[in-house]
Design a protein that fits this description.
single chain; about 160 residues; 5 helices
Amino acid sequence: MVLVRLCKVALIAAIALFFTLVAFGNITDYGSNWLFVQQVLSMGTTFANSNLHWRAIANPTLQEAGYLSIIAVETVTPLLLWVGTVRLLAVVRSDEFGRRKSLAAAGLTLGILLFAVGFISVGGEWFAMWQSQIWNGEQKAFDFIAMIGVVMVILLLPEAAMA
């Protein structure tokens, strides 16, 4: 029983580490993904004959606001996950474990929302990122959603009472 709970905690910590590295990378190498966000929002590499170009955001201030919003979510997500990890680890041998999942679940949810809403819905559909052969992050976003989603399902499996 404790081993299964430790496995859940380890998986949450793994996702926390992932988001920590993502946020760290975007903060310390701001320019790399900044170019990605600019290109997606400006729709510069979407189909030339597309009728969707009116959706493009060419204003650098608005583009940067979007990028900073992404970084903010990428920063809050691991904070929730690390705190959730510590909270669960503290009660890993207790019946309290099941009631302490909320912060970890919130962090996982925020991570899924970042990629499902931010990258697939907004980037992929609204800004037609799917049309770009160069600046298309939809597959990676889906990969991240799948990885985080599996951990969410495992985390939320019911807990047996400790004997």
